[in-house]
Amino acid sequence: MKNVVILGSTGSIGLNAVKAVKNLGAGWRVLGLAANSNLGALSAQARELKPAYLSVFDYAAWKEYRARVPRGTKLLAPGVEGMAELASLQEADIVLSSVAGAVGFAPLLAAIRASKHIALANKEPMVMAGELLMKEAERWEARIIPVDSEPSAIFQCLAGIKPGRYDAEVSRVLLTASGGPFYSRKGPLSGVTPAQALRHPRWRMGPKITVDSATLMNKGLEAIEIKNLFSLPVSKIEVVIHPQSVVHSGVEFRDGSVLAQLSEPDMKLPIQYALTWPDRAPSLAAPLDLFRLSRLDFARPDFRRFPCLELAFEAARRGGSAPAALNAANEVAVERFLAGRLRFTDIAAVAGKVLAACRGVPGERLTLAGAVEADGWARQKAADAADGMRRGKK
Question: Rounded to whole angstroms, how far apart are CA atoms 19 and 268?
Fold first, then answer.
């Protein structure tokens, strides 16, 4: 029996993860579920799946849910504490982390130190301190298998190469990006509304990652994640705009060969692969019909029109606490934008101000505690910058 814990079970990745576990059938079981505050969806999952453990992050929702926890199910503590306990349960075989943002840092670290097989869709911890987390994974013999379609594609393309040989064998990583809803849009982007930013042309995702896709910050954060997952210099990572989202990424090797992973744009496939690795099983994703594809388009990204991408590469080159600070600033700015308190183009402006003020310097020796400290510092700086911009526009 494979016991699976799903962190972020009511989000888009979590919902598909539940489908994947059910599709795998006998021998697979959902042991625990964690959600932020969507009690309706969590209750429905609990009734159907009968997990042994539940975690609710939001304290008010946790208090409300205490009185109606299903019999035979244990409700863990609210907040990060409960998620970390869920991620490190002795009886858990696989932990799928799909929570949004830096809040997933502590649960991921707990799963690593419990030596779990981790299916990771929460890129922000890997951005904050990915190199250190990979060393922790090696120390505790934990496995981290990426879930997002592009890191998963690269992971699949590198199959058969020893991790210590990645840099020697790889000349380029071709990191594909759909371009989001505005890549082909003419005119200024300052007037973009949250509703417009949330209409992604290819993927159905949570609000934060959908806005990140619209600004291309998501692709920049993925570049940092890939740098850390595979111990590659960021100079070997090249972003390629590919609006059809069929080529999920590729790897060019030193002999000039390019391997790429292609499939329909459906997260069910990489989610299930992260669960079953190193094996494969029939998935719920539709097979790719090459005869229906009329064309595949590729273009270079416009760094000037989408400055978040350049900010992420700058943070990657600087290293130290810069990626953690950039990630935190972006989270604050996106939250303000979704609340109607910041313009779309101000997301990059806030992130840029915080990155410029970041105390990290080249060669800085980051620690796990230092990454968390940088996250808190950057959130306050970003809030101050966003408040200043709002006051200046009144």
Answer: 8
